[in-house]
Amino acid sequence: MSEWVITAENLTKVYKMGEVEVHALRGLSLQIERGEVVSIMGPSGSGKSTLMNIIGCLDRPTSGEYILDDESVANLNDDQLASIRNRKVGFIFQSFNLLSRASALYNVELPMRYAGVTRERKERARQALESVGLGDRINHRPNELSGGQQQRVALARALVLRPRVLLADEPTGNLDRANSEQVHRLLLELNAEIGMTLVVVTHNLELAACMSRRVTLLEGRLAPVP
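and the corresponding structure tokens:
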């Protein structure tokens, strides 16, 4: 098994908008170790979201090589991408993306339902919620939870299938300072306990400072390390 969970070599991504070509990534190369905690920063339009979509198997590069957990995925079809995404990647987003009429427990069960997990599904969802400090909120709906609690439900949902990589896109963007700090601590604690690789897109300098490495993008390329 390679020491690298993520290897991206000379990635390009070109979007066509009518007759105009938009170069979102321009020959980007990046390696991330297993268990590493990395922040991705950069101004709007620098390619952060495009890179995260490729890392998370939500999109393919136009050219270049991408290897996730020793599997080459750059040229997989949609079904193959969905399969590897379900097995190896967890996602948390700024907007939580929870089902408003469902309980926290049901929201956390969802990835297992999609993956065809039937045995001990509720128990695994319960354990995931307990791991983020919400064991006493399993039957609460999102509108009965604070923003910080909703983000912890989203984190439990991302972790329930025990992914190799957790991708967090502005995970504290909708939270106040106190809840942001709580989510920061929880992400780092879970990284230490579980050993998952954590990749975070953020504009939050305090969160980025807690990461073991900061990667900055400028115009689709990695910015030089100062």
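(Above: one complete record from the training split.) The helical segments are 48-55, 78-88, 104-114, 121-131, 147-159, 177-194, 205-209.
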